[in-house]
Amino acid sequence: MIEIKHVSKRFGKLEVLNDVNLEMNRGECIALIGPNGCGKTTLIKSILGMVVPNSGEILFQGKSIAKQHDYRQHIGYMPQIGRYPDNMSIGQILNMMKDIRGFQGGYDEELFRCFELEGMSNKKMRTLSGGTTQKVSATLAFLFRPEVLILDEPTAGLDPIASEWLKEKIIREKEKQKLILITSHLLSELDDLITQIIFMQDGQVRFHKPVDVLLAETGEQKIAKAIAYYLKRNTL
Amino acid sequence: MNKVIKFIVLDILKNKFVVIYTFILLILSWSVFSLENNFTKGLLSLLNIILLIVPMVAILFSTIYMYNSSEFIELLLGQPIKRKKIWMSMYIGLLISMTSAFLIGAGIPIILFAFSSVGLMMLVTGCLITIIFVSLAMLASILMRDKAKGIGLSMMIWLFFSLMFDGLVLFLLFQFSDYPIEKAMIGLSFLNPIGLSRILILLQLDVSALMGYTGAIFKDFFGTSMGVIISFLCLLCWAIIPFLISLSRFNRKDL
Fold first, then answer.
1. What is the signed CA dihedral for A140, A145, A146, A147, rounded to 10 degrees?
2. Boundaries of domain holding B197
3. B255/A contact by beta carbon, under 8 A
4. What is the pLDDT of residues B134-187, one digit of tens each?
5. Which of A150, A206, B84, B243 makes a 20 to 30 Å CA pair with A215?
6. Crossing angle of the two packed helices B83-102 and B39-68, in degrees rounded to 10
7. Going from the N-terminus, what domains does chain A have, and what CATH number goes with each?
8. Residues in A lying within 8 Å of B, measured between beta carbons
């Protein structure tokens, strides 16, 4: 569904992405992991067209995304730090997005209900806590029933209950044969969610493997341990 | 795109700053016309106020608004909307609110007290000046990532065109006073949209007779319909070119 071919990106002298090649398909739930500053967010932003790569191309359903915008209607994006106009309320933000999208066919307001945002819909965005802002971001990402979900650190800042709701929601969407791409540092959270792992380091993809293959190779039960094992073996 | 423009205009109106600006313009121009019994005198006083305040408010408000909307722009970028459209909507939204503030604030008194060719010229150039400085504000906000630097650059642009440019021209005039530089002065005046607007309005009044030989040369050029058309085209370029540069920069920007 999404193909990334030889994508490189430099910010000044800093090489953030270095010849990244990836293929992601429908029905997969992929964890994008790696140390801070390894280029995860830049890769996600390149897929969304917010960052323009220096070279290489990104294909969405077989078509290059360069200078395109329509493909974004199939993507729900939840940013790491959601930034919203300060003087708009939650309700206004949601209505504005609905109005701008002009989406036909039933909004997915499940998270809106689960997170109990209804009672807060008159609250201004600047008065919200980090966690509530994350809830708004998550609601927006799922609202238009997109085929691809890109979630950048989705559970960071959410309380345990909300985070559980979100995980269950992700699992349900995965079963609908959607492509889900998650970045996270909390490896233990990912155990029952994901089917594939992409490990990035210094702007390069170290490996891209199905979870069961990785576990079998390392002989571990948990993803976190498998990754740790892999890293140790690599450095030794 | 219209929906985005609608949101921007509503957001600016909610800000109340534009409403206050409209009232201040209204009070200023109303009092100027009430003080003078001759509307030409009133227009002349109003000219100086408008050429100082309108560009300043237009450029500072637009720059600050652009920086404050960075979240909004970021939010829209993840949506299926063309980048070009986002930037153009910001421009058009700012234009609509700033020019309507000017048209209500200065337009109503001018039409009531001084409905004449000079009054109309003042309204048209006032609108153009607003558009030009909104466009320069968009350029300043894309050139500088940092808000404080961006606002500083905007203030420098405004200071340059409203004060420093005239000083430079005077300096050149004195330095080269032995040479026939009147024609060159016409060329130089195209480089400053505020100065150009002032000349256009002054030549509609008959005070150009007071400006001596240079005034006569100016009258020869700017007094003809050809000269007026060329000046307006030049003002339009000032309104469009900075915006186009900012647009192409925004298209390549990483966010």
1. 150
2. 2-252
3. yes
4. 999 999 999 998 999 999 999 999 999 998 998 898 888 888 888 887 778 888
5. A150
6. 150
7. 1-37+49-68+195-236 (3.40.50.300), 69-179 (3.40.50.300)
8. 11, 45, 48-52, 69-73, 75, 77, 79, 83-88, 96-97, 99-101
